[in-house]
Amino acid sequence: MPASPSASGEVIGIATEIEDFPDGGGPGKYWDAHWTVMVPGVGSLYGYEIETIVADEFEETMQMLADEQWTGSIERRMTSGPSPDGYGVIVGGTGAWEGATGRFAEVIHFSQAAPDAERVVQMGLRFILE
Q1: Cβ atoms 82, 124 nearer than 8 A
Q2: Choosing a second label site near 17 at 20 to 30 A (CA), which of 51, 52, 81, 116?
Q3: Three-state SS letters, the chain
Q4: Are 53 and 26 a contacting pair, CB within 8 Å?
Q5: Distance separating alpha carbons of residues 94 and 37, to the nearest angstrom
Q6: Distance (Å, rounded) from C-alpha 39 to C-alpha 74?
Q7: Whether the Cβ atoms of residue 57 and residue 114 lie closer than 8 Å to each other
Q8: On the CB side of 86, how many CA atoms lie within 13 Å of its CA?
Q9: Is the pTM of this model over 0.85?
Q10: What are 105's strand-pairing partners?
């Protein structure tokens, strides 16, 4: 993920993801993902999640995006665990986040698409510190 914007849109950090696709990934499958989020001068957060693409949501979204010119707002959550409420878990932190605990979710936000054209998609992480 290239950069982490602040509320005003200013780039303030960077996030990296390492994923393992033992079954090839895709709709209806589950895989492990490990995240590092680093904000210079603040610290880093480390998270673990189980990801999935919900098959019904995937089919619905892809069909809608393929059919016609579209502008709107659709958000899909990729995180399905390991916490019982379907969130990923914060496993550590440095700097201001040293000893941090909590949960997070990876989300994808679709805002524009056209057949055989570029799609406008924003991916993000939402951390909840406890």
Answers
A1: no
A2: 116
A3: CCCEECCCCCEEEEEEEEEECCCCCCECCEEEEEEEEEECCCEEEEEEEEEEECHHHHHHHHHHHHHCCEEEEEEEECEEECCCCCCEEEEEECHHHCCCCEEEEEEEEEEEECCCCCCEEEEEEEEEEC
A4: yes
A5: 10
A6: 28
A7: no
A8: 9
A9: no
A10: 126
Largest separation between any pair of C-alpha atoms in the chain: 48
- What's the total number of domains in the chain? 1
Residue numbers of the domain that contains 94: 4-129
| Token code pair at residue 26 | 């895709």
Segment 17-28 shows an average pLDDT of: 80
Report phi then psi at 100, rounded to 5: -60, 145
Structure tokens at 54: 């919900």
- Distance between first and last Cα of the chain: 24
83 burial class (0-12, 13-18, 19+ CB within 10 angstroms)?
A: middle
| Predicted confidence band of residue 2 (pLDDT cuts 50, 70, 90) | very low
Lowest mean pLDDT of 55-64, 73-82, 101-110, 120-129, name the range.
Answer: 55-64
